[in-house]
Amino acid sequence: MTVPPLAETVAAFDARAAAYDRSRMHQLVAARAVAAARPQQGQTLLDLAGGTGLVARAALPHGITAIVVDASPGMLRQARSQEPRLRVVRADAHHLPLRRESVDLVTCVTALHLFARPEQALREAARVCRPDGRIVFTTWAAHGWSTGRALREAAEQEGLTLPDPFADSGTREAAARLAQQSGLLVEQVVDVRTKEPLEDREQAWHHVTRSHPEASTDAIRRRFAHSLPDHVEHALLLLTCRPQTSSPSR
Ligand SMILES: C[S@@+](CC[C@H](N)C(=O)[O-])C[C@H]1O[C@@H](n2cnc3c(N)ncnc32)[C@H](O)[C@@H]1O
User: Fold this and answer.
1) CATH number of the domain that 67 lies in?
2) Which structural domain, as residue segments, surrounds residue 182?
3) Which residue from 27, 80, 201, 242 has the fewest beta carbons nearer than 10 Å?
4) What mean pLDDT do residues 220-229 have?
């Protein structure tokens, strides 16, 4: 899958920041990630590529301290305006400005697919996590976006075959392999499925064609708009891991 340059990703999330929290899907996945992380009073949680801090905010009632690291200043501003107790740090997930073994929990939710080197970012997560800590991350399941499926079908009818960007990375085996290669011990992999009303068809089009600019034609757009159902469904894999204490990256 082609990952857009970081500057483009940042601009896209800066623009989306004010409306981001309206996504029911992101709220639900954040709640599932916190349940998997099992935060406990007094712990420090790092929410990696934490955006507006949905995960960190959902974890705060457990009596933790939360740090949100993200590359988008707009998303971080939104995080702080929603919850001044969050510590926010603007940084690239591939190079964390945090000390080794300085946090108890790391979450990285709906963000890995945006990283140029997901393995490097997870290695960083393993480095900063204490040996008895926990790392929870999600990956998109293969065919995990119903809007992506609708785009591929519309494109196919116009003679353009588009690959599913998550076909290779979105299986349990591939996700577990990524974790292991990044110095993590996988404890659990679970499926997460969400379904929410599709509120903004225009935005759905821009979202899906961002990773497939070649499909951005009037004919495909008409077919896409016509075939879109009223609900959008997402499927993810949620992995709960521990750092491998003998990993060379630590
Ligand atoms: C879909 S949002 C997810 C936000 C949050 N984790 C959540 O679940 O709501 C993806 C986030 O990843 C951030 N991001 C993408 N690439 C990044 C990178 N290399 N380093 C840090 N943050 C990055 C974006 O700025 C954006 O806030």
Assistant:
1) 3.40.50.150
2) 6-149+165-199+233-243
3) 201
4) 92
